[in-house]
Write a structure and sequence with these properties.
Layout lengths: L5 E10 L6 E11 L4 E6 L5 H8 L7 E6 L2 E2 L5 H11 E4 L11 H11 L4 H14 L15 H13 L5 E5 L7 H16 L3 E5 L3 H4 L4 E6 L2 E4 L6 H6 L7
Parallel strand pairs: 3-8, 3-9, 6-7, 7-8
Antiparallel strand pairs: 1-2, 1-4, 4-5, 9-10
Helix pairs in contact: 3-4, 3-5, 4-5
The chain binds adenosine-5'-triphosphate (ATP).
């Protein structure tokens, strides 16, 4: 049996303590294999972002274990965890977190340079990543000179630059018009088909349709991890809440 790229085992997450505490996730078991894109859908507040930050080792769960490529994140020192994040994981968040004083290309190559890549090699990988989101012609532009959609594409290029094997995306198409949104989904799909694995948090059933599997969260629990069809039907079961 092959080792899953990502494994969440009995994950629970509680924010705060006592009466003010919020249970964001409980009893989450989820595996993502190489070559597989899993969409996570659910109403606002159902725990999607929490699941993603736990999968990426940014939040330590209250209970349960996360393994990435068979490595238990809980066993890693802060330094090793940061290294694994830089080398293996690509994050795309709702806020782009671009560094304003760096060009688009420098933003994209930053994780590689932090990891000791030589300048030329890093720049070449950065151009490749920008090309895959059709933005290489703006490589020298600063974030302030780019539109919101272009900034989002730079953030996506940074998430996939180099050899990242696990891509974690939180509404990656949020700031994009539908044509560019589709370009990003196609690019993500290509990466997955080339052997990466990924989780895509989305409210948009058209984007979820690019996934191999849809997992639906309700109140911090997985409702249905098997159905590939008709996300609208799953959403209709969300206690009447709009997602
Ligand atoms: N840092 C935090 N401190 C306290 N509670 C939090 C924190 N982050 C999230 N929560 C709570 O945990 C629950 C799950 O939140 P989460 O952001 O994971 O949901 P979500 O499905 O991603 O929502 P959205 O679609 O609105 O982004 C919510 O009740 C939220 O209020």
């Amino acid at each position: 049996m092959t080792t899953p790229l990502l494994r969440l085992d009995g994950i629970a997450m509680q924010y705060g303590k006592g009466e003010a505490s919020v249970t964001a996730l409980s009893g989450i078991d989820l595996e993502v294999n190489a070559g597989e894109l899993v969409a996570v859908m659910g109403a606002s507040g159902s725990g999607k972002s929490t699941l993603l930050t736990i999968a990426g080792g940014l939040t330590v769960p209250t209970a349960g274990e996360v393994t990435v490529g068979g490595i238990y994140l809980s066993t890693l020192s802060a330094k090793r965890l940061a290294q694994l994040r830089r080398r293996t994981l690509g994050f795309v968040f709702q806020d782009f977190n671009l560094v304003p004083s760096l060009t688009a290309l420098e933003n994209v190559t930053l994780p590689l340079e932090l990891d000791g890549w030589r300048g030329n090699k890093a720049r070449s990988a950065g151009h490749d990543a920008l090309r895959s989101v059709e933005l290489d012609d703006r490589a020298g532009a600063y974030p302030d000179d780019l539109s919101g959609g272009q900034q989002q594409r730079v953030a996506i290029a940074r998430a996939i630059v180099g050899q990242r094997r696990l891509i974690l995306a939180d509404e990656p198409t949020g700031a994009l018009d539908s044509t560019t949104g589709e370009l990003v989904m196609r690019m993500l799909r290509r990466r997955i088909d080339a052997g990466a694995g990924g989780i895509l948090v989305t409210h948009d059933s058209r984007h979820a349709a690019w996934a191999d599997r849809i997992v639906f969260l309700r109140d911090g629990r997985i409702v249905d991890g098997t159905r590939r069809e008709a996300p609208e039907q799953l959403l209709a079961g969300a206690g009447g809440r709009h997602v």
